[in-house]
Phytanoyl-CoA dioxygenase (PhyH) (Stieleria maiorica), 285 residues
Amino acid sequence: MVDLIQRYDGQTDAEFRSVLYSGTVLVMPASESTRRIREFCWDRICQVFGDDPRGATRRIDGETLFQKAGLLRREFYQSEVCRRGIADLLRQTGCDVDDHRCDPVRLRVITEGGHHNPAAAPVYYAHRDTWYSNPQCQITWWMPLHRVETTETFSFLPDYFDRAVGNDSGGFDYRQWTSKGTDLKIGWQDADAGRRELYPQLRESLPQHRRIAFEAEPGEVIVFSGQHLHQTVPIEQGETRLSVDFRTVCLSDHRQGAGPANVDNHSTGDALAGHVPVVSADLQQ
């Protein structure tokens, strides 16, 4: 795949989504909308973690950090500021907000040496987002809250975008996942979930594993198809990485079967049932 990661070039609506469905990763520039999301999230993180949130692990023990992050995750997931930002980004790309559903904003906190914690192992699994019972036309939007280098983001394995890999997604059922409450859905609210629950992952050693990581500025947005096989980069030495992401699905595309072909997703249930209108009823009033 040539030029996997490209700068957003003004594509709109169906063309925008088609580029993503083909496997291209787009980098959208920081805008008023993304800066608003970033400033809201960063201000709240500083209030909870302190003025140097990237160095929080030097001041806050692991259990307390996990609890504080959990409170922020729930707040961001329910935030109308973040929901408005999602709507603005869709409008910016010429998409019909009413024809979309979203899986709202999630906070991600990747700490130095976190990959050595067995309970956090699923954070570092190579996976496709579609393995979590998500539609083939789902699109992921990822935004760093500070500058990130290639050594602290995540990497794509583009050679496997349209090639099957061994995985255990067949053991994941969305109905069972959500029957245990909202903590798993919001992400990493339960400290023991990493040991207890099934988080789909790659289950084979890949003979060819070209990896492409990236760097990004705060407020830029990395947009890609949920079909992409990708994996969090472990931070051996450095500061905590803080980012947010959300997912969208175009309902018309979903009805028409648009999106990349399913090559190896065996999960059951339908995560779209848990997606919500981009513009809530409260915001429409």
